[in-house]
Amino acid sequence: MSSRSPVATDPAQVFDDLAAVAARIRDRLNAEITESAEDLPDGADGAAAPAGEISRFAREERDRVLAAGARGLEKLAEGREDEIDEDEYFGVEAIVLLEGRPALLVQGQDFATPTDDWAVLDGHRAPIRESIARVGRVEVTGHPSLDWVGTAFLVGPEVVMTNRHVAAEFTRSDGNSGWVFRPGMTARVDTTEELPLAGTAPGDGSFEYEVTGVLGIHREADMALLRVAPTARGGGSLPTPLAVAAEAPADLPGRPVYVIGYPAWDGRRNEPESMRRIFMDIYNVKRLQPGTATELIADELTMKHDCSTLGGNSGSPVFDLNDHRVLGLHYGGRYRSGNFAVPLWAMVEDTLPGLSEVNWV
Description:
The two termini are 40 Å apart. The protein has a 6-stranded antiparallel barrel with strand order 11-12-13-16-15-14. The protein is globular and about 65 Å long. It folds into 3 domains: 90 residues, no CATH class; 103 residues, Thrombin, subunit H, CATH 2.40.10.10; 102 residues, Thrombin, subunit H (Beta Barrel). It is of the alpha+beta class. Helix 2 runs antiparallel to helix 3. Strand 3 and strand 4 form a beta hairpin. The chain contains 7 helices and 16 strands.
């Protein structure tokens, strides 16, 4: 099957039993209770209110796409790939993204119970929550067009790691091998920025770190290290840093991993309207994104993975699900190709200022 999805993953590599996944999708669709038009709130003229119509249409579109995907999976399971039409291809990709490579919302520094294929995450809930608490959104003031620019994570007692291209949005070279803030700009790392739980207020800033300086920005790897301190509202001390892998893991291809970050709407990926409806246009908030490591390209200092990331994930950590060490620094993806990260164990002996402060384990 030719993949068009952002993760570029063959369904047979994602799911152990394609027919079983198709049956599960069909059972779920059959179990849903579809609201009738009489159940929707009425407008002044007796017609269904626009909000109710939008909700109903979004649900119907989602169900239509998933039903087509179930048909496509059944044909794949029966060796009838040549019979799959465009709607079924798209539906299979949607199922891969929703079931096989989901982007789970983080709320209250926790995540919802995952689907059957990622039920293993429940057994790792405590360490994953520890990981979640040490990843934040890089927010800026004084930028001409952006409120936030990517993701960062705590790797040392007062050090966060992110991408060079993220840091470049609010810093510049001082001409003497150093980096300084751009005039009129400041930055902070907010470790919440979640979709609020029903009945709760947005974060109050108590989980923010102020970026106080630049330790180092790598010339080749897309990496930056920033000095941070608790904000006045946050107070107290920073949590213990994440453990960063000091050696290569065994058997990297196929190794289960997860990314934590802030996927943003990214028009470069040209997502179809129906895909936007599947994800309900919820972007810019914290998510847990499981997947697998797929390849190491040592001469390009790149580890590939297939987690479902978008633009705002720049600077996200890629965790080993087995021991929760940070294996990689996510720096980008290519539609229909996969996602890329700096393999951090390859940086242990690097001379970049600040790397000696990283919690190598």
